[in-house]
Amino acid sequence: MTSYIVRRILYAIPILIGVNITVFLLFFVVSSPDQMAQRILGEKNITQEDIDNWKKQNGYHLPLWFNTKVSGTESFTQTIFFQKSVKLFFFDFGTSDANNIDITSQISQRMWASLAIALPTFLVGVLVNITVSMIVAYYRATYVDFWGTILAVILMSVSTLFYIIGGQWVFGKILRLFPISGYDSGVDMLKFVILPVVIGIIGGVGNGIRFYRTIFLEEVNRDYVRTARAKGLSEGVVLFKHVLKNAMIPILTNVVLVIPLLFMGSLVMEAFFAIPGLGGFTIEAIHAQDFAIVRSMVYIGSVLYIVGLLFTDICYTLVDPRIQLGTSVS
User: What predicted TM-score, i.e. pTM, was given to this entire model?
Assistant: First the structure.
């Protein structure tokens, strides 16, 4: 197990380096520092001197890859790549381009608001999706299966914006059960996060039921299920004990896609509910064209996705130890 984990971590390092280089190319080669300055300062009534001053103030006046004006190690350290990208490996995000605020400090403060919404939405959502899907699969080829599938299709066909606006109007404006927007710390936080969490669960339950139902129906037709039934096991035991265990690999694969959202939050949800999380932080940076913040959030999202894949690979070995040995699981 240890050698397998070490091997997966070593595989993740070159991927992380490639992500870092890709982010650098997108932000500094596709879009040059001069173009960044023009967008932030405004394309009208600015001079080249204004652009040069802004670049020097934010550290964008340095060469991209190699500095020929200095010697030794400074030829590499006094470059935009080292100052803006290499430091990302150590999670040193520097300051924002628009107002020079410390990005790391803002992330550490705002991440808790995002987690307060994303974590319960994720955990309860997965539990609800799997439970309902197993019930639908248990009553397959019946009216429960038929209407459950119809309801899932209807739910997944409706835009998340409808749930957000409708929830705010019904539960916030008419019934006045929850505030429409805002956020607070401590116990008062609950009244601000309950409605976004419920909306987040409802918005994802349609896709979840359809996905997990397909997995469970595929498993119930396998040989081991027929063998379990032949031994006299009840349908409930077969489904909840055997089918669920063998369906964990595709379930884990689907779950890892949501892991970055646990940290970065939902852009749309946080924007509509005025929650000061990382999703709102990213939208504010996009509106202000603050490339330093956007670059940092893109990198964090990539890192979290890589960590999620690594975590999923480890969970695979716990579900089926044959994976770490390279044995076929079919």
Answer: 0.75
